[in-house]
Protein 1
Amino acid sequence: MKEVQLKLINTESFDSIEKARKSKVCFLPLTDLATNPLNTIYEDLDTKEDLDELIESIRETGLQQPLIASGSDNGGYVLLSGHRRLKALKQIFSEGVEVKYNDLTVTEEHIPVIIQHVYRTKEEQFKALVASNCYRHISKETNRKLIAEAVKIYNKQLSKGETDPGRTRDNIAKIANVSGRSVQRYVDIGKKGEPVRMKDQGKETNTPEKNTLQDDRKKLIKKMASLENRFTDLETSDFSQEDLKDFKTAAIPLINVIMQRLDIDAGEL
């Protein structure tokens, strides 16, 4: 890996080059930065609206945080954090708009980056990427992708006899930085020491909590069906039409809300 050279356009914001170097922020050309192939795991979290908001923010207030990258054996650098910021910068550069980072000008030749050490294995790269994205709200699909990648790493470790002691579920959860319950939901785990595999999509394991919710849902369906029958009984009884109307006015909206939240079809009643 080639030595990182600190390139400052304007050193007046620092008392000295040494202070700039201690800030750990280097300025690298855009051509030296490669996107991380593993970042596709997080693609579903990045919407066009979010990117547009980020572009507008950088235009108005500048780049608030440097990118984070890892050195690579081919002499370049692989992003760990900042894929959206890099996309935004490319768009802004194409418009000819000046971008600032603190008091420094950011150009295609001078991108502020914090360099971490070289991660030589895919497992190291994956763990570093997960750590740099740990602040993000993870969707169900992203969670599944993280676990799928962790399963590959675990099976590779298993083939080399390098797995940590303890439960298979917990080892995979540790690699993906997710809960053991999430792993159990998506992974078929056999006997200890055997390779594991992802379950077919749509065939998740029902957790006790999920089973409880399903039971509660069935009970509510029965109660609402009973309530609907009660409406019919009231209409044929001596119950006044005015009171019946008031009762329905109060009860029906509540029933509709419950049906929507539990995704109950009217045909189930």
Protein 2
Amino acid sequence: MGQGRNFIGVLQSNLLMPGQVAEKMEAKKLNKTLLLICLALLVSLNQAYAKCTDRRAPGMDWSGCKKTNKMLDKSNFTGSRFDGANLSMSSLDGSNFTDASFAGANLTKSSFDGSSFTGASLVKTNMTRASATNSQFDDTDFSKASGYRAKFDRVTIQNSKLSKSEFSRASFVDATILDVDWSKSELGRIDFSGAQLRNVSFEYSNISRARFANAKLNGVDFRRAYTYQTHFEDVDLRQVQRLSQLQLEIACGNANTLLPEGRSMPDTWPCSE
């Protein structure tokens, strides 16, 4: 009789109530789900590592990869992706970036001299102190890009977007800039000396202390641009648009500055050094 009671007790201790059975099944499902997630992450990491080791070629994807201090001159990266990649302090001179994407990429102190960026996306790209002299930018999107002290001397930029960008102290000496939206941007102390600008909008942009020495301006829109000590010495302003007398009053010019119709030379010109 005693043995029977012990058997019944053991049996009862190993039986699970309906609620306990459900909890145990849920725990198994959860463990299985977590295992599948871990496996998916592992596969994703392996794929990401694999693409970062791919050799340079048209159409490749280095998104999120670290490629700092690399020598990649004269490469063909047509249609390639560098979104979120770190290419800082690398040399990519003479390369083809047609239809490439650099969204959010770090290009700090890198060199792209003599390269083509036709149809490329440089949205939110960091080009601080980068160099892209003698390069071609056709139908390029620089929206929200930054290029503090970057060098773009003798570049050609046309049919492109540079709105809401930051290029303070950047150099565009002798550049050709045509049909460009450069509105709502931070361009303090930018240098356009000797540049040709046609149909460029600086609407609502900060161009304080910018230099336009010997630049040719045609159809350039200065509506509500901030022109504090902007240098217009020896510049022909007769073909610009919506440049107010107040903007001229806070800017710098001289007797050789040719003014738009209805505007007069401020008494404060020339500016004191």
Protein 3
Amino acid sequence: MRHACKAAAQATTAMLLSATFAASSTGVALAISSTGGTLAPPAVAAGPVGTARSGGTGAAASTAANTGGSGGAAAPSTKGTGGSEYGVLAPKPKVTRKLAPRKPSHTVRRPRATPKPKAKPPTPAVSEAGVPSPAQTAGEGAVFPVLGLHSFGDAANRFGAGRVGHIHEGQDVLASEGLTVVAPLAGTIITTAYQAGGAGWYAAEHTVDGLDFFYAHCQAGSLAVSTGQAVSAGQAICQVGQTGDATGPHLHFEVWVGGWQAAGGYPIDPLPYLEEWDHVPGG
């Protein structure tokens, strides 16, 4: 009886050991997925590496039962939206944006050429009633009073320029000393004289047109006419000098209406007449 019970106990132990060995050798594991509670397939213990893939929207939850050994390791689960096996999302392709050409912030304008001023025509001289005009005297054969190169200087040489105690009553014709001074129109010599502090050696003429001419600063000893002498247009009067109150050689020329230094007489601007008579190149 004792032996029979002992044998039965040994048989039961053997059966328990056999069942335990069988369970561990097969490596059966049950896994419930996170999405549906389904059973996952058993992992094979003999394999080198065991893997598990996510379903698509969540992480896979797996349970592996290993009795030891080198196999049966579960693969890491992915997170996010399931776009990558190991949670690394593929880089998105770069989109190259074409930049539109930039417009300049301001328009560059070319500078406009400054128009050149138009030359003004000479203002015609206006003569008083009964006074011959420059054009009339030129038509009668008037000549320029200096034979040679000359100029009219600047503002200080003009008619009406200021002087100490008086105004300039004539027009200066700048020229080299010694050039011949002639009568522009025919007439009669009124006077010749010398004024140390003013006109120097001078002569005055009354012309056939009724105008009176005055020639001043003549070179000393050059007077070629005398009082009361009749002269013709172009006849020599004297030579250009700088006697009296003068700072350089020139002819001081005056034109009078109503008589030179006479009561009621007065000087007018000689420049329009001189310009009308000027036919010498370089003048």
Protein 4
Amino acid sequence: MMSKFNRIGVFLVGLIFLAPNLRGQSTGEAAYEAQNYDEAIANWESVLEKYPDLKALHYNIGNAQYEKQAYEKAREHYEQALRSQEINERADSYYNLGNAYLAENQAQKAIEMYKNALKLRPDDPDAKANLEMLLNMPPPPPQSQNQQGQDQQENEQQEEQQQQSNAEDKQNEDQQQNDSQAEQNQDEQEQQQEQAGADERESEEQPPQPQDATQPQESDLTEDQQLAAQQLLNALRDREIENMKEMIRQQTKGPRLEKDW
């Protein structure tokens, strides 16, 4: 016969010696019995703030969390309760740890916790019953071919959906990059057009510059004609030089002196 998985009850920690200071402990017990689990947790946590060494109160909070089906939080407090120096308190914490693991279908963890409880308290009938039940539990039946095929089909559909989602994300990302690039190109083109218009207006506003006389002009003569013209210029230059020399000689030649007889 299967045992009841969770022991309902709370530890009355030091109530005789610390009754004036543990009013929250008593109030928490009353709230727990009335199934007001949140109120019970709040009262016990307020006591723990004043007396953090009362590890057994973690067991009580764990039970309240268990009743709320908050199994992970329940396990956290049961593990805190394992620090208690009392063997029975640690055995109860191991037992309810097994129940919390079993509630989440973690059978191997539950088996380990029940074994730990029996090491501390070998005559615990509930821990024995739960452990035997789990050890004698038949393995789950193998999946049929239809079930396997259905699972494979679901996995393939999920993988296909994931690939499609990734492809859509990639396409959206590429589209965003293309839009951004096109917008950047348009901005650059508009800036170039504005600059060209400004240059054109500036050119229209400036007066025409006089042509530099010393700037060489493009010639429309052929190469032979240019050579002949250059030779003519050279001959004229040489002739002009000779004329200048003759003029200088005439100027420097003194006047002829005639005899005055």
